[in-house]
Amino acid sequence: MNASVVLQGVRKRFGSTEAVRGIDLAVPSGCLCGVLGPNGAGKSTTIRMLMSIIYPDQGSIRVLGSDAIAMKDRIGYLPEESYLYKFLDAEETLDFYGRLFGLDPEERRQRAATLIEMVGLTRDRKRQLREYSKGMTRRIGVAQALINDPELVILDEPTSGLDPIGTREMKDLIIDLKARGKTVIMCSHLLADVEDVCDRIAVLHQGELKELGRVEDLLRVTGVTQIRATGLSPAAAAEVKAVLQRHGAGDIDIGNPRTTLEDLFLEVVRDTEARPGRRARRTETAAQRAE
């Protein structure tokens, strides 16, 4: 598997608390991976280690084929709380961060204009950030994370503070990043947002990886078969597929129904608390991981 991020046996302790307990995780290149977990699950600690803000006590982390600290100029990062200069406007903010990456003036100008339009701040590009709402601040934070045209994008709560329209636009933007070939890691407490945009998820709880796999596989209820059809009379509803076809039913769909990401998440948390030693269930086959 060609992976953009690989964690092997990663552990991190703060005093007497072991925040991350031996995580093994690979994020395939071009994947849109959601990282979930309740407060204290180890999400933020893991992300900070990916960014080389802190370092693991044990284990190894490889980002884009090298040590994480060597790849910082190829990573875009939106923290949960954006620490931006409030006296700058959107254009000045992106110009400032472009300078930090060593971009020349014309490239900074072009990228800033493109990103400001992409995140929907064209009309507010000359307003100082101190006048921005929380939702607008998240938008310029995403633009800042993309100013260096990164290969790996890490987004921590990207839809926080956005109204429904802004949330939909942000999710469309995240999907577009994947379509452009970027690897995206998205941390969020909003399970519906993760379910909408991510193709893989990793669920952390109590510092351990508890679930890992494709969203479609994890949410499929394998013990139940569901038959759905249109144009079917009540008398024929209880009959098998062949009978349904004989009665002229259309759009027959026989397969496994899906649960919701919220139900899966709560099941993982409750199961972990009932069985603390439970390890991750990986639904991906070897063939799928090689994709």
Kindly describe this structure.
This protein has 291 residues and is of the alpha/beta class. It has ten helices and 13 strands. The chain has helices spanning 43-50, 90-100, 105-118, 134-146, 164-179, 191-197, 215-219, 241-246, 261-274, 286-289; strands at residues 3-14, 17-28, 32-36, 58-63, 66-67, 75-78, 152-156, 183-187, 200-205, 208-214, 226-230, 250-255, 281-282. The strands form three sheets. A seven-stranded mixed β-sheet has the order 6-7-8-3-9-10-13, sandwiched between helices. Strands 2-1-4-5 form a four-stranded antiparallel β-sheet, covered by helices on one side. The protein has a two-stranded antiparallel sheet with strand order 11-12. A hairpin with a 2-residue loop joins strand 4 and strand 5. Helix 2 (90-100) packs across helix 3 and helix 3 crosses helix 4. The longest helix has 16 residues, at 164-179. It is globular.
Q: Record the strand order, biggest sheet.
A: 6-7-8-3-9-10-13
What do the pLDDT scores average to?
Answer: 85
Helix content: 25-40%
| Low-pLDDT windows of residues | none
Q: So how many helices?
A: 10
Secondary-structure content class: alpha/beta
The largest pleated sheet is described as: 7 strands, mixed
C-alpha-based Rg, rounded: 22 Å
Shape: globular
Order of helices and strands: EEEHEEEHHHEHEHEEHEHEHEH
What distance lies between the first and last C-alpha atoms, to the nearest angstrom? 7 Å
Query: Approximately what portion of the residues adopt beta-strand conformation?
Result: 25-35%
**How many beta strands in the DSSP annotation?**
13
